[in-house]
Amino acid sequence: MIAQRLRFKTSSPTQFVDITEKLREEVRKSGLRMGRIHLQSLHTTVGLAVNENEPLLLRDFESLLERLAPTGVGYEHDDFARRFKIALDEPINGHAHCRQLLLTGFATLLVENGDLVLGRWQSVFAVELDGPRTRELAIQLDGDFEAKKSEVARAPRALSSPLAGEVARRAGGGVQSSTSADKELVELELTRQLLADPDPVAVPMRRLVEAGGKRLRPRLVQLTAHIGPRHDPLRAAALAAAVELLHNATLIHDDYVDESTHRRGRPTVAAAEGPERAIAVGDFYFAKATRLIAEIGNNDVTSTIADALEAICAAQIDDVALRGAYPGDHASYLKVVRGKTAALFAASCASGAQLSEAKPDEVETLRRYGDLLGVAFQMADDMVDFSPNSGKPVGLDIRQRVLSLPLIYAAEDKEVGPEVRRLLAGSLGDAEVNRVTELVRSSDALKRVGDEARALVEGALRELEAIELDGLRPTLVGLARSAVDRDS
Amino acid sequence: MTAQALQIDRELERLDGLWEDGLQDTYKSYMDFVGAYEPAERPRLALAAALIESGLRLQGLGGPAAAAAPLLMGDLCLARASRLLADHASQTLQVAFARAIEKMSANAASGEAGGPVREFLVLALESGR
Asked: How far apart are CA A245 and CA A243, in angstroms?
């Protein structure tokens, strides 16, 4: 199943827009050989019709509509004094709604041998009834598709299986129904990629991937891949899995740098396999992920991810450099977090949208959403270090001198600040870490960080108001809120 | 010749020290292998290859692990090379370079002695045309 949007502009109040060739092109590009193309108007004043494209006949149709539902004859819908919640730009268009009732809002056309099945004189029209405007039709293509060369070359053993086919069909079936199918699809793709790699690199990475993780970045890729007119669940899953591999590759090197012994409850690659292997595994998946992204063949996506990767590496250097002035200040913190965490959140959102050929302003809006969400996520993550219920050892960030906003705020606090700064300046044994944790909890630092994170999430959600998201908004809102309101 | 004269100075942000410390010579070596590419792209492709070689050397890939600071600088070299290739190289060349790094790092993880890094990268440049 392929789902997408067909946008077009109209130029007059009533207009029969012949979309036959556009639909033929969509069928051709999709590779659909035998099946159906479903159309649905997304407007109450745009109808659909299959008829002959003969100019005089089209004028007859216009005349017929005018006779049946004449303009300006006093429709109750146009009596604004009796209506509620009227938009400032509400048009007088009772006639247009009534005309749409005479047409249809949806249609299914058959596809055989890669082409629309139409009679000699049949054309497909989107009928504008209240133009001129920019309009949109939802279209879905389902049936038997020819295998694309690039997909065959990637030998999708798992993704061509009946299970993956079913998952892909569900993933293409609208945002709500695709949520769990999307998750399954990205897990299948990760499994498939890790099966193909040599054991010395695949085994440690498999251990890390199978240990879980929130999969927020792939989720963002898959969600935003619904935004544009060209949603392809398989390509979105391939990109999402590559982004997750890239994220994990950076974690493997980070863990070595931070001398972390555990991640997701399991020994880190550096701790289990030694630093030499950790460096090699990180490099392998860094390269593999960039290759998988390049193979998708979308230059905008490749550049977006490459920019993010550069930002992550530069921020990691800044992060380590700042440990000399631990715990640092708010400006330094933001600079590091924007690169280290938010860059890949932003790139995940932008690249998913780019993959679906969303409009540039939509891509940029989603990039800003991802950036704000990424910073908020990191702040919430910092707070986990002070929670006894998180499942992670309390005070680990302090022990490893990892940049942390609660610590920065506690160090600035009039009451506890002097003691926090004094303790952080010395060596940090268990007693010192416990005391710093106590001091942070007793100050208002955690509340300040929580408030700031929630304010960033609200900012991220305001960004979304600028774009049309169909049914995607609740999911993006829920995901943003859950990123900061954790059970811990 | 300076990086500024080569019009690649903007690509060396945060890597200035490396340029003086061997990256420049590595870059010059790779300029011998990019003659088949468009003249305008040659400096950036040679620089991408030089950054990969220098990055892997800094990380100690295949040898004793580097300390944190050089490892991170090596990561930045690889990321910068990846971005240069994303912006200036064909998909074929991007894939060829990535496969070269995959091969070298898989060898390193297996404890196998691979060939010199330059051999892998020159092969990638040749196959990516």
From this structure: 5
